[in-house]
Amino acid sequence: xxxxxxxxxxxxxxxxxxxxxxxxxxxxxxxxxxxxxxxxxxxxxxxxxxxxxxxxxxxxxxxxxx
Length: 66
Prior knowledge:
Elements: H1 2-65
Protein name: Expressed protein
Keywords: Membrane, Transmembrane, Transmembrane helix
């Protein structure tokens, strides 16, 4: 009887640990995805600004020419 309870407790703790671990993994994945997205967006914005400045200059010169 006692042995069975010990095994059940061990199984329960193991499942609990697995559940906690999976939740933590999912949480870190979501956070890392958000951080990655944020970094990518920042880089894209910086690139966009770098690309946009010459494009705007070109557009203005074209407007002046026409």
